[in-house]
Amino acid sequence: MSSYNKKSMLSILAPEVLLHVMSFLPLADVYRIRSVCKTWQAMGEEYIFLRIREQRNTVDVKIGDKRRGVVVKLVPHSYDRANRIVEFRPISMTAVPMTVDANNPFSTCHRRMQIHFSEWKSSSQAPDLVTAAASASNTSISLQDKALILFHMGYNPALERTYELPSWGPSESPDHFVGDKGLILSLSYVHPSTLNDPSAAGVSFYSYPNHTTSIPTNSPPHIQIQWLRVTLSWILSGIRSDIAQTQIYPQRYGRLSHALARHGCFKYDPLSEPVLSHIVHNESDEPWSAHQQQHSRPASICDHPRAASLHFPTVNDTHSDASSSTTTSSSDSESDTIEDVEEHLPAELIDYVQVHTHECHTRLSRLQHMLEGAGVDALVLWKYTFAKSYVVGNGSLVGEEDVVRRIQDSENEWRLKRISLTRRLGIA
Predict the structure, then answer these.
(1) What InterPro entries does the record tag this protein with (predicted)?
(2) Of 274, 279, 270, which is closest to residue 364 (Cα–Cα)?
């Protein structure tokens, strides 16, 4: 049987059969088989969201260090089929204190946070080597070698990734954003006076600022998480480290780059707060998304497993000549719609990018580029405490070249050590 016939048979399977098959597969396998065809892609990606919601998986935003930090739990809220993004929202909108000791207003403040999906675990790499090292006797392998194996092979970059909290000084907008390649987090800072008296932070009935807004306060604010938007690859990358993260809002970033290029801006930091704010609030791709949903038959299963109805393209809709001609015409009109959408950039964003062009590379991005140039996987950066302190710490006396050299030497040493340990433990 030819590969074309096999693909055709897979494409015409009933949606109920595909959903039943997906229910037996791990999430990582569901994510992989979505590449068979567009129908499977839409079904598989939405099914991942449904399973996450049904299993009540959460995202933990860990603010501060492990001993004295606070955790804000977020639950799945919605799935954006057009942008293929899952949005999480906190269970409670209660603001958490930013100070380490909530009872002491002069206590130090939290500066870092980590974002973990509940299904992420350590020791995701080479489980055979980790198991063999844990069960081996001390005569065959030393305690130092065991610790070395657990340090390197138990490393999950998703669990060690650390973010720096934005500054909470006075700003025009109360909303702040923290971003990465596969996520955007929205948070706000609320002062204790605002928590006790909601009218203290707003405006009066006639839209004049209240007198309390001009009163300076010395107490640090509270942190309130608004929402978290992530790509499916961000969720799966912490389960399987070989799954690469995809860019969140790629169309919006693409249009932003073209629009900035027309103003002579070719370099900018995509994770800076003004850029993230523009990406979040710029919904110029919504007309195209509505056009796409109107002229195509997306595979929606948001209401299928435990709810009312199922909306899938039928076999005749998918494979008839009329459907193919409609798909061709709709794809042409979609491309025209995308081209007609013009990016309108606010003057504040253009001024910010022009002023901060020299800051297009952060400490993190520079280290990542230097590690890749040295032939080292940039994901190992979060394995080392000195590198993590350099990126999100108060500052370091160690230069970038020294950080890269130490990481490169450690990885090369481990590469040779791993070969000898594998032979000693008898693992093929």
Answers:
(1) F-box-like_dom_sf, F-box_dom
(2) 270
pTM over 0.90: no
pLDDT in tens, 226-260: 999 999 999 999 998 888 899 999 999 999 999 99
Report CA Rg, the chain. Answer: 25
Structure tokens at 398: 């160690």
Tokens of 213: 């807004």
The residues, ordered by sequence, that sit 6+ positions from 69 with a Cβ below 8 Å of its Cβ are 62, 63, 110
pLDDT digits (tens, 9 = 90+) for 189-232: 987 765 555 454 444 444 444 444 444 456 778 899 999 999 99
The residue among 85, 55, 47, 81 whose CA lies nearest residue 186 is 85
Q: How far apart are CA 110 and CA 1, in angstroms?
A: 62
As given in the structure block, the two tokens for residue 150 are: 């657990």
CA torsion angle for 299, 53, 282, 341 (degrees, to 10)?
A: -10
Instruction: Report whether 108 contacts 229 (CB < 8 A).
Output: no
Strand pairing report for 96-97 and 222-231: antiparallel
